[in-house]
Write a structure and sequence with these properties.
Blueprint lengths: L5 H13 L4 H20 L6 E6 L2 H16 L3 E6 L8 H8 L4 E3 L7 H9 L2 E5 L11 H16 L4 E5 L21 E5 L17 E5 L13 E3 L2 H5 L16 E5 L6 H13 L4 E7 L3 H5 L6 E5 L1 E3 L2 E2 L3 H8 L5 E4 L7 H11 L7 E4 L1 H6 L13 E4 L2 H8 L3 H6 L1 H12 L2 E4 L5 E3 L5 E3 L12 H14 L4 H23 L6 H4 L2 H10 L2
Parallel strand pairs: 1-2, 1-4, 2-3, 4-5, 5-6, 6-7, 8-19, 9-10, 9-14, 10-11, 14-15, 15-16, 16-17
Antiparallel strand pairs: 12-13, 17-18, 18-19
Helix pairs in contact: 2-3, 3-4, 5-6, 8-16, 10-11, 16-17, 17-19
C-alpha cells in the first residue's frame, strides 16, 4: 500500500480526473466511505445524534456527503459549517432538500448553537480541514476546536471521527497544531499520508482506516514509499519445499554477546531460527558460551578468545573470518559491548572484504561510527538496524532531529551509504539505496523494552539466510516482529511484555501472514 504526501495525493487525483474520475465522483465515494466506516465503528446509527463539522474545500464537501448518507440511514444528523460554501453547492443542497438542520458559524454568536449541538451529539465527524498546506490554527477555527476539545474532556465517551486526518495535523510531517483534537477513528482517503505514520501525529489518530475512494490502479507508480502489509510480506516469504533439509533454509553466523549482555546473544540467535533459518551458529566470548548453551540447545557454537572476562579479543578476527565462507549471512553487533578490544575486533572484521549479506546492529554500528567512511567498507547487501540514538551517532546529528525527519533521513542515508537502513522505533522505516522505502504499520509501546531490537535483528538475518533479497528480508522481518508484538499485546497487554515473549510468536506470525 503506497504512502503519499499531500502533493502526491493531489497529483494522483488529477490523473484520475483525466481518466474521467471527476472530483464530484471521488467526493461521493469518499463521503460514502467515511459514513460506512463511522457506522461500522459506532454500531447502530438509527436515531443517534451525529454532528458533522464542515470546513471549506473538498474535505468539507466529503463531510456533507457523509452527512447525507448517515441521514438516509436514519441517524439524527446536524451540520455545522465553519466557512460558507459556494452559492451552488449540490451536496449542501441535497441536505437542505432533506431538511437536515445546519448552522453557519457566522450566524452563531458566541458558539452557542455549536456548544448545544456538541452536548447532544453521540458522534462528531471532523471534516474541517484536509491535507491542504498546514497553517497555524487561530481565530474562529481555533474556537470551534476548543469547544470540541472541552466537550470531549467533559464526556470522554463522545466518539470523534476524523475525515482524512484530524484538523491541525500536518499530512506530510506529522506535526500537530496545539488546537488539534485527537480522534478515536481516522478514515484517511485513498492512501495513508506520511504524517499519519509519523509522531506526534500518529498518536492523534485513534484507529486508522484507509478507505478506497475509487482511484483507478496505476496512478501511483512513481510513489516509492509504501506501508508494509500482510500481503506484501506473504508474497516475498521463501518457499518451504517438502523435501527440504536444514541446508535448504540457510546458515546464519551470529556474532553477539558479552558478559553484561548474555541475553542479547540468546535472543538474536533464537530469532534467526524462529523465522525459519536452517542453522544458526553463535560466535560469542568463551565465558558467555556456556551461559547461553544451557538455554539454547538448537544452535551450534563458536567460542571466541577473550581479552577479558566476556570481552571478545581482537585476534578472534582470524577465527571468525575462517568460518564465514560456510555461512549465508552474518549478523554482528547484538550485545557485544563497547570495550576497546571488542570495538577493534568489529572494526578489523568489517574493514576487510566480506561478500556475504550481513546485518549490522547495536554495538556493531557503534564501533563503525569511529571509522571515517565506514559505509564504504561494507558490502552492498548490508542491512543496518539503528535505533534513534545510534542513527544520531552514525549521522552526527541529534536524536531530536532524527525523530523529526525519520523517513527523509533514512532515505537520504540509504542512498548516501548504499545500504539498506532499518530505522527502528514506532512505525519503523526501511529504506533502500534505490529510493524505495517502507513504513511499518505497528506502533506498540510494549516493544519498548530491552532485547526486542536483538529479536528484530535476528529475524531479519534469519530471513536473509533463506535467500530473501535484503530489502524484502528487512521489511518482512520488521512486519513479522511487529505482528508478533501485537499478538503478545492482545494476549497480555502492553506493560510487562518481554523480548523473549516474541520468540514463540514469530512462527505464528508467519503462519498468520501466509493465510491472508
Amino acid at each position: 500500500m503506497k504512502v503519499v504526501t499531500a502533493d502526491q495525493m493531489r497529483t494522483i487525483e488529477g490523473r484520475a480526473a483525466k481518466l474521467g474520475f471527476t472530483v464530484p465522483m471521488l467526493m461521493e465515494n469518499a463521503g460514502l466511505a467515511v459514513a460506512r466506516e463511522a457506522r461500522h465503528w459506532i454500531g447502530v446509527v438509527e436515531r443517534r445524534p451525529v454532528l458533522i463539522l464542515v470546513g471549506p474545500g473538498n474535505n468539507g464537501g466529503d463531510g456533507l456527503v457523509a452527512a447525507r448518507h448517515l441521514h438516509d440511514w436514519r441517524a439524527a444528523v446536524r451540520v455545522y459549517i465553519f466557512a460558507r460554501r459556494t452559492e451552488d453547492d449540490p451536496n449542501l443542497d441535497q441536505l437542505v432538500a432533506r431538511n437536515v438542520p445546519w448552522t453557519l458559524h457566522t450566524n452563531d454568536e458566541g458558539l452557542a448553537q455549536l456548544k448545544s449541538a456538541l452536548s447532544q451529539a453521540d458522534v462528531v465527524i471532523d471534516a474541517l480541514l484536509g491535507t491542504g498546506k498546514a497553517r497555524t490554527i487561530e481565530g474562529p477555527l481555533a474556537s470551534i476546536l476548543g469547544a470540541l476539545r472541552c466537550e470531549r474532556e467533559t464526556r470522554p465517551n463522545l466518539k470523534l471521527v476524523a475525515l482524512d486526518l484530524p484538523t491541525g495535523l500536518d499530512a506530510d510531517t506529522g506535526a500537530v497544531d496545539p488546537a488539534c483534537v485527537p480522534a478515536g477513528l481516522t478514515v484517511t482517503l485513498g492512501y495513508p499520508k506520511t504524517g499519519l505514520l509519523t509522531f506526534p501525529g500518529a498518536g492523534c489518530l485513534g484507529e486508522l482506516v484507509v478507505a478506497d475512494i475509487g482511484i483507478p490502479p496505476g496512478q501511483d507508480t512513481d510513489v516509492l514509499v509504501e506501508m508494509m502489509t500482510a500481503l506484501s510480506v506473504k508474497s516475498s516469504l521463501p518457499a518451504r519445499p517438502l523435501n527440504a533439509h536444514k541446508g535448504s533454509f540457510g546458515k546464519a553466523l551470529v556474532v553477539a554477546g558479552s558478559l553484561n549482555f548474555v541475553g542479547a546473544a540468546y535472543l538474536a540467535t533464537m530469532a534467526t531460527l524462529r523465522v525459519g533459518a536452517g542453522l544458526a551458529t553463535l560466535a560469542t566470548p568463551e565465558r558467555v558460551y556456556p551461559l547461553v548453551a544451557g538455554r539454547l540447545a538448537e544452535a551450534t557454537y563458536l567460542p571466541l578468545p577473550e581479552a577479558g572476562p566476556g570481552v571478545i579479543a581482537g585476534d578472534a578476527v582470524a577465527l571468525v573470518r575462517e568460518e564465514i565462507p560456510r555461512y549465508n549471512v552474518l549478523l554482528i553487533g547484538c550485545g557485544l559491548g563497547q570495550r576497546p578490544a571488542t570495538v577493534w575486533f568489529v572494526q578489523r572484521l568489517l574493514s576487510t572484504p566480506l561478500t556475504l549479506p550481513m546485518v549490522v546492529d547495536a554495538d556493531g554500528l557503534n564501533a563503525l561510527t569511529k571509522l571515517a567512511g565506514w559505509w564504504k567498507m561494507l558490502p552492498h547487501e548490508a542491512i543496518l538496524t539503528p535505533h534513534t540514538g545510534e542513527m544520531a551517532r552514525l549521522t552526527g546529528t541529534e536524536a531530536d532531529e532524527v525523530s523529526a525527519r525519520r523517513l527523509e533521513l533514512a532515505r537520504d542515508k540509504a542512498r548516501e551509504w548504499d545500504k539498506i537502513v532499518v530505522l527502528k522505533g514506532a512505525h519503523t522505516v526501511v529504506a533502500s539505496p534505490d529510493g524505495r522505502a517502507a513504513i511499518s504499520p505497528w506502533a506498540n509501546p510494549g516493544l519498548a523494552t530491552g532485547g526486542t531490537g536483538d529479536v528484530l535483528a535476528g529475524a531479519i538475518a534469519g530471513l536473509l539466510a533463506q535467500g530473501m533479497r535484503p530489502f524484502d528480508a528487512a521489511c518482512s522481518g520488521v512486519y513479522l516482529h511487529g505482528l508478533a508484538g501485537e499478538m503478545v499485546r492482545q494476549e497480555m497487554g502492553e506493560a510487562g511484555m518481554l523480548a523473549s515473549d516474541l520468540l514463540p510468536l514469530l512462527p505464528r506470525a508467519i503462519m498468520k501472514v501466509k493465510t491472508v
